[in-house]
Write a structure and sequence with these properties.
heterodimer, A: mainly beta, 6-stranded mixed β-sheet, 11 strands, globular, B: about 120 residues, mainly beta, 7-stranded mixed β-sheet, 4-stranded antiparallel β-sheet, about 0% helix
């Protein structure tokens, strides 16, 4: 069966450290993968998109990698800040252009 | 400012009642989507629409209905046939289905509770 899995346990890190979140998938062949941020009681906000032929993408303090052999994407936030605390969702296209979402990983950055 | 507006923010439904959730966008996007979010689960696709007067079932369409009479609007009706409707409902839009390079824009959600 098709699955997208993110770390189910919350990630707690100290301010200034790098946060690394994982997204694994099985039985998909996505053309691209996206990452979103969601704050409590709000809709997700698009952060980054990485295509299947791209190994890495950066945007300010964010970095995403995409390994189609391992079927895994890693999402990094460098120099993390308490304002980065949120739930982060990965999503991939299901060959029909529709996005399938993981369950999200909650990140908590402590001062 | 362009965006998606969902209303109401909170909605309470009695047993056996149909309720309609509103979703309006002014982004000139062709594609619109409805997702349901339950605690600890990913977003699950209910319905989507590529163009006016066309819509398709997603993974969990049973007990729901939609319409797309205008490009800007994509209302979702939760019918009495939906046995477990309590959830957070999210509407989203994108430029066009399958266009790579752009993410979805989401509304701020409607929290529906059965009383």
């Amino acid at each position: 069966s098709q699955k997208i899995e993110q770390n189910s346990e919350a990630l707690n890190i100290q301010e200034g450290k790098t946060a690394t979140l994982t997204c694994n998938y099985t039985n998909y062949s996505p053309a691209y993968l996206q990452w979103y941020r969601q704050d409590p009681g709000r809709g997700p906000v698009f952060l980054l998109l990485i295509r299947e032929n791209e190994k890495e993408k950066r945007k300010e303090r964010l970095k995403v990698t995409f390994d189609t052999t391992l079927k895994q994407s890693l999402f990094h936030i460098t120099a993390s800040q308490p304002a980065d605390s949120a739930t982060y969702l990965c999503a991939l296209d299901n060959q029909g252009g529709k996005l399938i979402f993981g369950q999200g990983t909650e990140l908590s950055v402590k001062p | 400012d362009g965006g998606i507006t969902q209303s109401p923010k909170y909605l309470f439904r009695k047993e056996g009642q149909n309720v309609t959730l509103s979703c309006e966008q002014n982004l000139n996007h062709d594609a619109m989507y409805w997702y349901r979010q339950d605690p600890g689960q990913g977003l699950r696709l209910i319905y989507y629409s590529q163009i006016v007067n066309d819509f398709q079932k997603g993974d969990i369409a049973e007990g729901y209905s939609v319409s797309r009479e205008k490009k800007e609007s994509f209302p979702l009706t939760v019918t009495s046939a939906q046995k477990n409707p309590t959830a957070f409902y999210l509407c989203a839009s994108s430029i066009r289905l399958g266009v790579v390079g752009y993410g979805y824009t989401f509304g701020s959600g409607t929290r529906l509770t059965v009383v």
